[in-house]
Write a structure and sequence with these properties.
The structure is a homotetramer of 282-residue chains. Chain A has 282 residues and is of the alpha/beta class. The first copy, chain A, contains 9 helices and 10 strands. An 8-stranded parallel barrel of chain A has the order 1-2-3-4-6-8-9-10, surrounded by 4 helices. A two-stranded antiparallel sheet of chain A has the order 5-7. In chain A, strand 1, helix 1 and strand 2 form a beta-alpha-beta unit.
Chain lengths: 282, 282, 282, 282
């Protein structure tokens, strides 16, 4: 598995180049980013230059966010599709092979109808991405408070997301598995071992406070190793499932970090070393 | 449009042959039936004999029910699929080109997850039927009491069903439009005119008591012309949409009819003549 | 059916506005155009202005060409997809609901493999268009000389194209039926009557010289009524199939016309009147 | 990887029970069989009995043939589909998760059109199998003489088959990779390493005579280790691609073997041990 980073929890980066340099300096091999950043990266460095920059820093861009609002009006969805095709092309050019989006656990729309609409929309996104060799990873979101944040319940656990993926029915759609969401849905590591490698598009890690599970907030996460989640067990389970991709840190917090980024990255580097070792990963 | 009959409201028939004979005698051109009856029909008459019998009586079998339970366990669904393939083959052999199923407005399953599961299952059914040139018609069910008959709301109106059809995503899936369900969901005839002909797989007519719409029960329907639904307007709207298929009477009632069937059919025949004439249909 | 025009055979137009004005002046109700022209139209008039201009001239844009090269390298295909999404959005904005592409009857690629590749690529195009309510019409190309113009035979007749459409498997894909290609593949009008309306996305008419069918060249067509094709029978057959869309004149010729455009349009207007009348169309 | 057997090259077995017993006795862990044999197995042993028999002999049924003729008439295809659903259900009941079919390199049909038809038909098969958790493996067939055995060329190499799989477009379709076909299409082991594990449904091994590649006949194969194919390199390449499934021996020969089966199996067992060891597989 590759050690990866998202910028969440690390504060703002001047540009993707800075992010890549820092990720590289602290021993990471991969980053997640957004499609806009990839576009700017290619505009400033050229396609060849961007690829070279990544190579020189031994960093892969392993995932970008889905630049399409699929949860609101049909008009907005339609208007966003051109962005997706452009993003897919840029991602293809820098070797990024995954695109991810999260599923909010509740919705102001009618639950069943919204599932039908979302199925069609994400299918379209997957179909476009497939032409650029990019997979779409769907992230279920576990924290309990979000299940009632909007009027009607939607979906939030592994099995529901697998059913959603089957409804979409495209071969390049799979899971983005996030340790926080597994923890907040009481998903056992054993359940993860039963997945097949091709069902997993991407993985996020982070940690949870030692409070009752149903009180955990989505944007109140800890850095890996600082909380109560058995992250080694989590990675061991994913390894058993055959997963060989990247594991990116994503620490959503209510406020920006106050520590300097170098300190945060050093901390993360150490945590990754410990967790990977304990999980039997090199 | 063809004048059609289901057996609902008419009582039991000894066999499909009797049904065909009576439908023919009272001026109907089409019947709906179930897949089991088609199977028995072919077993008793042979394929050529069955087709000849239909021809001699100027009757087409225009629709059969979907012989698959797609609303319960995965095991039951899996076990029912062989029946579907057999039924599709038999339907093909007697020229039946539509298969229909109704959607219950509520469910004991989680609404959004059940929509995902139902999308996949009905897609499979549609894919199998497509190989036999058979379309799948989905019937939304309007009566209000059924929206809370099970734990969670599912779907019950036109737009929701169109979204469901898009989620399924197969070209041979469309609507079964039933006058009672249009009436109980306050669907205007103008909305029907905006459909395109290929979105409509089949049509049912019947009538509603003169009580508040939200009090109408699903199995308390009247014969066409005996209630308050503007059936001529309904057919005129479907004609404007380009629909040219069959319109079958379906009168669900709580108890079996007490009148002799000949009387019921004579009544239906007259009602059809009146309604078709008023709708400008020959 | 709507009387439509493509610019083929009429010479160059300054801009789409001129084309619309002339089409309107000579009694036409629809035009085909290319996606680039729609884009310029919207850029110069604004979306609202463009729609108003069309309304004022009682003209609909009924078809645009597919702005994607799906017959060559994967790279070119990938690079063209962003253009398709932009074109689809523009077409949606001016109410254009069909996109068309022609199939060359031979290919330098391996025949069977190219069919597999083309199936996937056109499926992607159809999927994108579907989100904008646009159908994709595939035009088979009949002239015999093109069957050996490249190394290996591909497809050129109705049944092959229907099989191609089934392989693509998307609900919004159908036929562009061109009178010249029907004539050069000896397709009977009776065969056309057996199509269903939803299989036909668009129709082209033109005429053929009185020489042996296998000698007819693709770019040596005549104006409707000047040759040997029974165009009234052709339209009658399409009417019998339920087709209600536009019929656009497309006269491919080796050299630009020398007559002034007004004369050509007057000629076409008269021919359309005659042919439509004889076909029983108003 | 599991050591597997097909019956090809071993002669006739009285029943699947005998095959399972012998496979087990000679150190194999898996067998391929046909759907008819699975059906008889379940009829004679019951589902629970069949599963127990397999468990007691430490044998998995890893693949069955596709019981559908997809290369001939539409009628035959339609008539075979019920068999497929029954076979899928039986396979599901005994834990068999792959179904395989081979692609003949030439056809009496029009090449491109046949590809379109085959794409639709195999898509239907895949869709049915998917509901039972079964994958469909397509086997390209390399021997040169078969490329001209029928009128028109079809497909015979890896890339063509991958394009076919993409045209089919279902997530549960992948490759059956056979060492003989890789050898006769000059496919390098390096090319195999570039596949991803989920593209490979099943693997066959066998060996080739030391004659020019283009002279090798399809039904003139040797037992593993007796010919010139680098089978260890082949398996090492598949391992590098992440393949973890079964590798079944398939020795097609013109005439039935004359040696007693015990001798043949002992020979195969030894060959497997040598090849697996050399490939770094336990």
């Amino acid at each position: 598995m590759l050690k990866g980073l998202t910028s969440a929890g690390l504060g703002e980066f001047k540009d993707i180049n800075s992010f890549i340099k820092l990720a590289s300096r602290y021993g990471f091999q991969a980053i997640d980013t957004d499609s806009e950043a990839i576009k700017c990266f290619i505009e400033s460095e050229g396609t060849a230059g961007a690829k070279l920059f990544l190579q020189e820093h031994h960093i892969e861009i392993v995932a970008m966010n889905l630049p399409v609002e699929w949860r609101e009006s049909e008009e907005q969805f339609r208007n966003d599709l051109p962005k997706l095709v452009e993003a897919a092309k840029s991602a293809f050019d820098v070797g990024c092979k995954a695109c991810t989006t999260y599923i909010l656990p509740s919705t102001d729309y009618h639950s069943a109808q919204f599932m039908a609409v979302a199925t069609r929309r994400l299918r379209t996104c997957a179909q476009i991405l497939h032409n650029y060799g990019i997979r779409l990873g769907l992230e279920f979101v576990g924290p309990h408070h979000l299940r009632t944040a909007w009027k009607n319940p939607f979906i939030w656990d592994l099995q529901q997301t697998l059913d959603f993926i089957e409804a979409i029915g495209e071969k390049n759609v799979g899971l983005l598995i996030d340790a926080y969401h597994c923890y907040t849905t009481n998903l056992s590591n054993e359940s993860l071992t039963k997945l097949s490698a091709d069902q997993i598009v991407h993985v996020h890690i982070n940690d949870a406070k030692d409070i009752p599970v149903h009180e955990l907030l989505d944007n109140d996460r800890l850095f890996p190793g600082e909380g109560v989640i058995d992250l080694s067990g989590f990675l061991r389970a994913l390894k058993a499932a055959g997963y060989k991709g990247a594991v990116s840190q994503e620490v959503l917090t209510a406020t920006a970090p106050t520590e300097p980024i170098e300190g945060l990255l050093e901390k993360s580097q150490k945590a990754y070393t410990t967790i990977f070792k304990k999980a039997g990963l090199e």
